[in-house]
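Ticket closed. Logging final result for MFS transporter.
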Amino acid sequence: MEIETLSAKTTSVGYYRWRICALLFFATAINYIDRQVLGILAPQLQTEMDWSDSQYGLIVTAFQVAYAIGFLFMGKLMDRFGCWGGYAFSVLVWSVAAMLHAVARTAVGFGGWRFALGLGEAGNFPAAVKVVSEWFPIKERSLATGIFLSGSSIGAIVAPLAVPVIAIHYGWQWAFILTGASGFVWLLFWLATYRPVEQHPKLSASELAYIQSDPPEPTTEVPWLQLLKYKQTWAFALAKFLSDPIFSFYFFFLPKFFNSQHGLTLDKIGVPIMIIYVMSDLGSMAGGWFSSHLIRRGWSVTKSRKFTMLLASVTVTPVYLASQTTDLWVAVGLIGLALFAHQAWSANLLTLPSDMFPRQAVGSVVGIGSTVGAIGGMFGATTAGFLLQSTHSYAPLFVVAGSAYLVALAILHSLTPRLRAAIP
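Final structure:
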């Protein structure tokens, strides 16, 4: 039967779970700082190393290929061994790979370290979503997801402010080294702070009871391949396939877009990018809050999640006009609105696996869906690079960016009209 809402009124039970959410937020921020450094430096590196647009697209694709491969085993890794060591392993791999970009001197070299970065970064979302499913009751999960997801926008704000300063004063190599090193700081806090929810010595009995107040879930272990037979898995995966490439497009191509269309150089790109990702950050929290708010008001999980995603899908459609305007700040506003909507959409989409699957399968389902999403991003990055080289126009890319969410929501709804539990 459909997962229904729980009581809207709860007593004060403690807040330790929000400390864990804060760690997820900072990990996600670091994750997006590390992956954005190349995009910010792309105009300079393309000139210095004589890359074509298609070569840059293939370098980005190397990350997406590894991201897709990484999700296949990272999600299973989190379900099998737990998030304390699994998350730490993921962050360790991507931090080392991020720093080693500094030694690359060719397109092939950058592609190799992008590949390693993608393998490590693939662990972030399976781990974070699994942690949320274990540490938060259903009615708080979309809010917690929206909060940690907002770390991606914070990372995207910090990077364009910090990276140009580092690159201009110390060289582009130090931009990779210093941002990559931030992951090691996070590791110290994670290893010292995190424990499984039932074993945490600082969690009160009342807060543990609140976290575990949802109806009991199935405890039978589900084989990884068996998850592929559920339409709920494919609903999540296909929605990721259509929406993930859009965020990747913004993430990797926005500095190039503003450079080619509006003449922004490395020292001037920070403020427009910051404004866009502040709006994106607000979207993460607004989308997560709004869905949880509707549940507290008595809406079912199905209606609250899908209504929020529908609003986001409609809000993103005007972004096509960003490719047509010659006014920089109009373009910034339209793209910022689109990313606000994308993050509101994603905060709810990432919550769906924990709505439909037991905790012990959530990491694997997120991994499967994210693999499919990364495959979409891989083809999207390559296609974007070749389209730009052949047409010298961003218009076709923004048309796709404005319409993909409505198509994704239609497919998701057709496969899962109601968010039923996949495993009885």
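Confidence is low (pLDDT under 50) at residues 1-11. No further action required.
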